Amino acid sequence: MSHKSKILVTGGCGYIGAHTIVDLIENGYDVISVDNLSRATTQLLAGIADITSVQVKNYAIDLCIAKDIATLFAQHPDISGIIHFAAYKSVPESVAQPLSYYHNNLASLINLLQMVQQYEVPYFVFSSSCSVYGNTQQLPVTEDTPLPRAESPYGNTKQIGEEIIRDFSHTHSGSRHALLRYFNPVGAHPTALIGEIQPIPQNLVPYITQTAIGKRPQLTVFGNDYDTRDGICLRDYIHVCDIAHAHTLALRYLAQSTADNRCEVFNLGSGTGNTVLEAIAAFERVAQMPLPYVIGARREGDAAAVYADNQKARALLGWQPRYDLDDMMRTAWIWEQRNTQ
Ligand code: WQD
């Protein structure tokens, strides 16, 4: 009988979690999901089943309730890896409700690490964010770029989460940990059976596609007086399927690693920056339609430019982004059209 590794994905009903589950299944893993559905529905689980023919079981428990996680682990003592996506992720909401963000994002992490310790779970992958770099001036950002004070309580939960895991790794020799700093994940699965769901768009690409389909009258480009090649903010957009595959590679890396360091951090970005106008141009090219937009004021808290040095992920994980900016826009647009029907 073949033995499959069982991976617990938290936040498996969310955008990156769902794409990662597909990649894990396609690479031979057994997956269970924990998602309390506070910020998601089971829609993407149905899409995962359509793509993979596997019905992933979701446990709708709150990771902040220690006894509920303990019950889950008692049922699944053979979990061999955890990929921890579940978290609140809105920057402005975190400014308005800091305690809710600190409690939700950190209590859940601590409870999970207690299970890692108790059940000797060997591999732990954490969803971190380029937001840990704040308004850094050093470009491209490498994993060694010093972290300034976080710009928001949300970003701070990612900085503190990384520190908690690093400290834990120093004392606990039974597990290895990867901290994955995502840049700007966009796009959708090429089947258009799963993608990003933002009823009120919080990020650029959902705003673009919802404008194109007529749900929003126009896009506002936030500021045109930045010190970049066209005066517009520049970010590192990376396809969600490339991000997803990096998690599979991270599990393999952790399984093979014999390094003294039991906690490694990786930037997951394309390595190149694009401005909002370049993103719009890519959208217009692949959708073959003009996008209505106006130039507006700067958005508070926006850095002028952020993009990744991704050499470490390439070298140690063997990761290579496969989708370019046009692919990101094309898949996001096909998903929007399908999801809006
Ligand atoms: C992208 C670019 C905007 C909307 C955020 C979080 C970060 C991380 C990723 C989780 C910026 C511009 C946007 C619009 C615009 N999340 N824009 N008009 O701010 O780079 O990063 O998501 O970890 O922590 O802060 O992403 O998609 O909001 O913006 O001009 O209507 O698009 O100014 O340059 P951001 P975003």
Terminal residue distance: 43 Å
Uncertain spans, ≥5 residues at pLDDT below 50?
none
Could you tell me the radius of gyration in angstroms? Answer: 19 Å
The oligomeric state of the chains shown is single chain
CATH architectural designation of the domain at 6-189 and 239-269 and 309-322: 3-Layer(aba) Sandwich
Give me the strand/helix succession.
EHEHEHEHHEHEEHEEEHEEHEHH
Largest pleated sheet: 7 strands, parallel
According to DSSP, the number of beta strands is: 13
- Which range best describes the helical content: under 10%, 10-25%, 25-40%, 40-55%, 55-70% or over 70%? 40-55%
Quote the average pLDDT.
Answer: 97
| Ligand list | UDP-4-deoxy-4-formamido-beta-L-arabinopyranose
Strand content: 15-25%
The chain-level structural class is alpha/beta
Look up the CATH topology of the domain at 6-189 and 239-269 and 309-322.
Answer: Rossmann fold
CATH top level label of the domain at 6-189 and 239-269 and 309-322: Alpha Beta
What count of helical segments does DSSP give?
Answer: 11
Shape call: globular
Which labels suit this protein?
341 residues, alpha/beta, Rossmann fold, two-stranded parallel sheet
